[in-house]
Amino acid sequence: MIELCPDTDAAVRGITDGATVLIGGFGRAGMPFALIDAVLQAGPRELTVVNNNAGNGTTGLAALLAAGQVRKMICSFPRQSDSFVFDELYRAGKVELELVPQGTLAERIRAGGAGIGGFYTPTGVGTPLAAGKEVRRIDGRDYLLEHPIRADVALIRAHVADETGNLVYRKTARNFGPIMAAAATLTVAEVDRVVPTGRLDPEHVVTPGIFVDRVVVTEQEAVA
After folding, report:
1. Do the Cβ atoms of 188 and 157 come closer than 8 Å?
2. pLDDT in tens, 56-65
3. Which domains, from first to last, does the chain contain?
4. Of 40, 4, 1, the residue nearest 23 (C-alpha)
5. What is the mean pLDDT of residues 94-99?
6. Helix (H, G, I), strand (E, B), or coil: what is residue 160?
7. What's the pLDDT score for residue 224?
8. How far apart are CA 195 and CA 53, in angstroms?
9. Rounded to an integer, what distance in angstroms lies between the CA atom of residue 120 and that of residue 98?
10. Is 90 left (phi over 0), alpha (psi -120 to 50) or beta?
11. What would the pLDDT profile of 141-181 be if each residue is shown by its tens digit?
12. Is this structure's pTM higher than 0.90?
């Protein structure tokens, strides 16, 4: 049974210092800005954050980094034209970085949700990303062993939820949300609206409610 939260403060309660947090989004698309702002206000520190990138501008994930609440980033694209907050913190030695190729990142999260203990991929072989990892030759090709990512909390953005937590997404805002929802102990979704159970076409549901623990309605400018 999901919890329909009255506000974002209630939705993020219980996130503790040192938690690992999956945060959906590809750039701004699908980023759960309202939930991130609530975490910023709640103030947990020493967080390990998993996201496709390391924040944009001064809002959302970048604001969480600027507040000193993030100890480590696990991401694929730490640098871009507006990632100056992360850049400054990393160069000053104030945040750790684990760089993971995007496909590998997605598969590690998916493996975490599926209960898979690890997988082999050729991505990263022969590069510094292979340091310390097991290498296995399969059919004449080298592969790296990658381990799953599971988290204490997933914060995701969806378009519509029903009263049992089934989720549909809006266009590219879908990105990492579905796999993150399955890979966390606690999954919190911010949505545009909640509809009665049975209103959503089952063929359109992307994330089943069994993976969702809390839902909160927020307002956000659409980013496709």
Report:
1. no
2. 889 999 999 9
3. 3-131+141-217 (3.40.1080.10)
4. 40
5. 97
6. strand
7. 41
8. 32
9. 18
10. alpha
11. 999 999 999 999 999 999 999 999 999 999 999 999 999 99
12. yes
